[in-house]
Amino acid sequence: MITLAAMAIFGIGGLCGAFRLVRGPGMADRVIALDVMLISFMGVIAVDAARRDDRTNLIILVVLAIIGFTATVAASRFLEHQADVSAADLLAAEAASSDDDEGADA
After folding, report:
1. What is the rounded distance in angstroms from the CA atom of residue 77 to the CA atom of residue 83?
2. Distance between CA 6 and CA 48 in Å, rounded?
3. Whole-angstrom distance, CA of residue 94 vs CA of residue 102
4. Can you say how many angstroms the Cα of residue 76 is from the centroid of all Cα atoms in its chain?
5. Distance (Å, rounded) from C-alpha 97 to C-alpha 106?
6. Residues 6 or more apart in contact with residue 105 via CB below 8 angstroms
7. How do residues 24-70 score in pLDDT, each as one tens digit?
8. Could you give phi then psi for residue 7, rounded to 5 degrees?
9. How far apart are CA 31 and CA 33, in angstroms?
10. What is the pTM of this model?
């Protein structure tokens, strides 16, 4: 009975992650939502393995954890690089507009 309640709670968490994945305003929100969904899925697998007293699915948990960690790190590095490029473009645009203003004053 407790295991079914735990699976239901993990399922609700996964649905909340799916909702944020669809409605997330930014890319970072979507990455976090995928992480929440993956962790919820891993929780269901772990609870099921404990309920059945079966260790065969635990390898799947390890693989999912490695994939999830790697994907989150890669996405965060991509978002950080994208933010740096956007900031550099903004600075270049400001410099160009200030050069145009100085040329118009002369």
Report:
1. 10
2. 10
3. 12
4. 8
5. 15
6. none
7. 888 888 899 999 999 999 999 999 999 999 888 889 999 999 999 99
8. -65, -40
9. 5
10. 0.74
Question: Which letter does DSSP use for residue 25 in this model?
Answer: S
Rg (CA), the chain: 23
What Å distances lie between residue 51 and 1, 48, 55, CA to CA?
10, 5, 11
The angle at the Cα of 23, spanning 20 to 24, to the nearest 5 degrees, equals 65
Separation of alpha carbons 79 and 40, rounded Å: 24
Q: Decide: 65 and 38 in contact? Cβ < 8 Å.
A: no
- Pairwise CA distance, residues 29 & 16, whole Å: 12
- CB atoms under 10 Å from CB of 10, counted, come to 19
> Cα–Cα distance between 72 and 10 in angstroms, integer?
20
Place of tokens 């400001």: 94
Give me 53's structure tokens: 């007293």
Q: Are 48 and 6 in contact (CB under 8 A)?
A: no
Token pair recorded at residue 38 = 């993956």
